[in-house]
Write a structure and sequence with these properties.
Protein name: Glycosyltransferase family 1 protein
Number of domains: 2
CATH architecture of the largest domain: 3-Layer(aba) Sandwich
Order of helices and strands: EHEEEEHEHEHEHEHEHEHEHEHEEHHH
Mean pLDDT: 91
Organism: Sphingobium fluviale
Helix content: 25-40%
Strand order of the largest sheet: 3-2-1-6-7-8-9
GO molecular function: glycosyltransferase activity
Keywords: Transferase
Low-confidence stretches: none
CATH topology of the largest domain: Rossmann fold
CATH superfamily of the largest domain: Glycogen Phosphorylase B
InterPro entries: Glyco_trans_4-like_N, Glycosyltransferase_grp1
CATH class of the largest domain: Alpha Beta
């Protein structure tokens, strides 16, 4: 570290107005950086009804609601007022967490002023078009992402699997791993509450299949619903618990009329709900990191997930859960049926998941990002950083 404290300007498309795994990780990171003496200023769209109080100093970036998804905001870029604020803050490093107009503006500012720029990858944006009938655009999205990330000094992925994918996609020559941590004061087997679960009308001997996350189609809601329909056809005893909310809720409720929809849950209430399930079914392929997968493992429950970047770095196939080819309804149903009918195997794989989850603690996780900040800053001061990625 230099004699003067590091000053980080962090740019986010959603720091606290809608709660998700990405901004939870960013807020944890800012809290850790502040505890280490790093000065941090966050720039992000805001609303009058934020989902939670932000960690650190937050500057509101002008934005518009996204059509058909008004709960999300589209930042207008690095405006003149934001540039003035940024100059007054005098950052020594830029961190961008989304390749949106605000992130692009921050990246241009950093390159213009000779500042190192680190990007964190939080979701697989290139997979989104396929859920809206626009899969033909996927190569274009990959090309645009590549242009953005190659101009950064380093990029950080939440798992080694995704990091390797980014290398194969030629996104950058400097790809590191900033994984995610778990709060075991919230997520633990002891948080299971059979009385609360019974109050929901769920019999004690009926296994519960859980869904956790935003209720949007790109999370694989169609695959989840089709798989549950297959379990019903097979007459496999089970109940479904849905934790989360979003624009596709009415569609999901129509497909799962017998499910218990709990809406958004946070803190101890979320920990209780997760621990009171019997398994997680996560068919999504869009996550860069499966926060909900890790939280479920920390509660001692097995996970059935799509074999994708959000889960395959967490779930150990056949040991702590099952990894299934994306969209394979029959195979998903086979895996869930086995857990529903074999409580001994369910307990065995849940215990293995609990052991695996203990590797993820927030301080160690966030130190990896601070180490990257320190390294690229030292390289910039020494002139070792190149101005253009050598990746062809």
């Amino acid at each position: 570290m230099p004699d003067q404290p590091m000053r980080v300007a962090l740019f986010s498309g959603n720091y606290n107005y809608v709660k998700d795994g990405a901004n939870q990780a960013l807020n944890k990171l800012v809290g850790y950086l502040l505890s280490k003496g790093v000065v941090v200023r966050v720039y992000s769209p805001t609303t009058e009804t934020p989902a939670f109080e932000p960690t650190g100093d937050l500057v509101s970036a002008p934005s518009w609601p996204i059509p058909r998804r008004p709960e999300y905001r589209f930042p207008l870029g690095l405006t003149r007022a934001l540039r003035r604020d940024l100059r007054a803050f005098a950052p020594t490093l830029i961190h961008v967490s989304s390749p949106d107009p605000l992130g692009h503006g921050a990246l241009r500012y950093g390159r213009k002023h000779g500042l190192p720029v680190v990007a964190s990858v939080h979701t697989r944006f290139e997979t989104y078009p396929r859920y809206y009938g626009l899969a033909v655009l996927e190569p274009l999205v990959v090309a645009l992402l590549r242009r953005f990330y190659r101009r950064c000094d380093a990029i950080m992925a939440p798992s080694e699997t995704l990091a390797q994918m980014l290398r194969e996609q030629r996104m950058s020559y400097d790809v590191g791993v900033w994984t995610r941590g778990i709060d075991d004061s919230i997520f633990a087997p002891a948080k299971r509450d059979t009385i609360w679960r019974s109050a929901l009308g769920i019999p004690a001997d009926t296994p519960v299949i859980g869904y956790i996350g935003r209720l949007v189609m790109e999370k694989g809601l169609d695959v989840f619903a089709d798989t549950v329909a297959e379990l019903r056809r097979r007459q496999v005893a089970h109940r479904v618990m849905v934790i989360g909310d979003g624009p596709a809720r009415s569609w999901f409720e129509h497909r799962l009329p017998d499910a218990r929809f709990l809406g958004f849950q946070t803190g101890p209430e979320l920990g209780r709900a997760v621990a009171s399930m019997d398994m997680l079914f996560n068919p999504s392929v869009t996550e860069a990191f499966g926060n909900v997968t890790l939280e479920t493992m920390a509660c001692g429950l097995p996970v059935v997930a799509a074999q994708a970047t959000g889960s395959d770095s967490l779930v150990k196939e056949g040991v702590s859960g099952r990894l299934i080819r994306p969209g394979a309804i029959g195979q998903f149903a086979d895996a869930l049926e086995l857990y529903c009918t074999n409580p001994g195997l369910r307990a065995q794989h849940g215990e293995a998941g609990l052991d695996l989850s203990k590797r993820n603690r927030w301080d160690a996780v966030n130190q990896a990002m601070l180490d990257t900040y320190t390294r690229v800053s030292a390289q910039r001061r020494s002139g070792a950083l190149i101005s253009r990625s050598p990746v062809p």
